[in-house]
Design brief:
With 358 residues, the protein is mainly alpha-helical. It is built from twelve helices and three strands; from the N terminus they run αβαβαβααααααααα. It has a three-stranded parallel β-sheet with strand order 1-2-3. The mean pLDDT is 88.
Length: 358
């Protein structure tokens, strides 16, 4: 019967063992699901790759999935939920890989300039951004319609790697470019960080300089944006805006880092040691004397307040970084360019999908 298996549309008047045999024959050819609503279906439900019990009877005990809705449409619902879950798992995986590549980039640049980003920045990244957005990514809702194909399940496949490598290349280019831009500023000359001029025992204050400040701002934007990039619903999840948890957290974190970048010295930015300085130095720069306590800056300059024009330039470049990352994922990985490349690859290698006669 194996040679006629895919030509047969209806298997009727079968014994429980016959159903098991039929399922096992199909399992030799492809991933096979079985749905049933009675005790005589238990063996086949248990044997199949995926068993769906359409009742609350004894069949639901042996079946991995069960539904009180006795309609065959439950199979479609299960496929939609399963594909959404797989797409969300891959999105979480890519987010954490992107976190690792961005963090390694941050560490490399830190090491090169012998600086350490402020303590509050570490707390924001590791305790709030990474944890909060990891949870938020999982809150994406399932698509209303069943997609014609399943999402990729390959952790190191072309689709997954093109997404990760693209984001990494864009982020690296912008961070190194902005550090280069910093060193071209006339007000920065003679204010470069030199570890010989400070107390290196105060390692937690090695962020009191322009280098660590720019690294912090750029990388926070990149850490936050990674969650939005991988939250695109595509075919398997609903539009990103329906993930309300992520939308709120993303907007909140972007607002926080924008305030840190653009605002004049204030209590909040001084907590992060960004655009702040010693009280006397801030007064000399034309700002009002702070009413809050500020630990003495561990640098000869006594501050790291950037000029207004450079703040807006830095913020604009960070927003450009965000837009390019979103466009890479939307139009290259998931969009027409990605579909064109996949179509060319299939035409060259051939389509190995199992053909079933309808």
């Amino acid at each position: 019967i194996r040679q006629y298996l895919l030509d047969i549309r209806i298997f009727a008047r079968m014994t429980p063992q016959g159903k098991v045999d039929c399922v096992q024959l199909h399992m030799e050819r492809a991933v096979t699901a079985m749905c049933g609503d009675g005790g005589n279906d238990c063996g086949a439900l248990r044997a199949a790759h995926v068993g769906i019990a359409l009742s609350d009877s004894e069949a639901s005990i042996v079946s991995p999935f069960s539904s009180s809705n006795r309609s065959i449409h439950s199979c479609v619902t299960l496929l939609r939920e399963g594909r959404s879950g797989l797409a969300t798992s891959i999105a979480g995986y890519k987010f954490l890989i992107n976190y690792g590549t961005t963090m390694s980039m941050l560490e490399i640049v830190q090491f090169y300039f012998s600086v350490i980003v402020p303590q509050a920045v570490w707390i924001l990244i590791d305790s709030f951004i990474t944890v909060g957005l990891c949870i938020a990514i999982t809150q994406a809702q399932t698509a209303r319609k069943l997609a014609p194909s399943r999402p990729t399940a390959r952790l190191i496949g072309a689709h997954t790697l093109s997404s990760i490598w693209g984001q990494t290349a864009i982020n690296y280019a912008f961070l190194y470019g902005m550090m280069g831009l910093l060193f071209r500023q006339s007000w920065f000359r003679c204010h470069e960080f030199d570890s010989r001029d400070i107390d290196t025992s105060l390692w937690w204050l090695l962020g009191d300089n322009y280098e660590a400040e720019v690294i912090s701002i750029v990388c926070i934007f990149q850490f936050v944006n990674a969650a939005a990039v991988y939250n695109f619903g595509y075919r398997y999840r609903r539009a990103w805006i329906t993930n309300y948890v992520l939308a709120v957290l993303y907007s909140g974190f972007i607002a926080i880092v924008s305030i840190l970048t653009l605002a004049n010295p204030n209590r909040f930015s001084c907590m992060f040691r960004i655009n702040c300085g010693n009280p006397d130095t801030l007064v000399d720069l034309g700002y009002s004397r702070p009413s809050w306590n500020i630990s003495a800056y561990n640098s000869p300059a006594g501050h790291n307040v950037m000029p207004h024009k450079f703040r807006w330039t830095l913020w604009g470049l960070c927003v450009t970084n965000i837009v390019l990352c979103l466009m890479w994922e939307k139009f290259v990985v998931l969009g027409p360019i990605g579909r064109l490349v996949r179509g060319w690859w299939v035409s060259r290698r051939g389509d190995d999908k199992l053909r079933v006669k309808l």
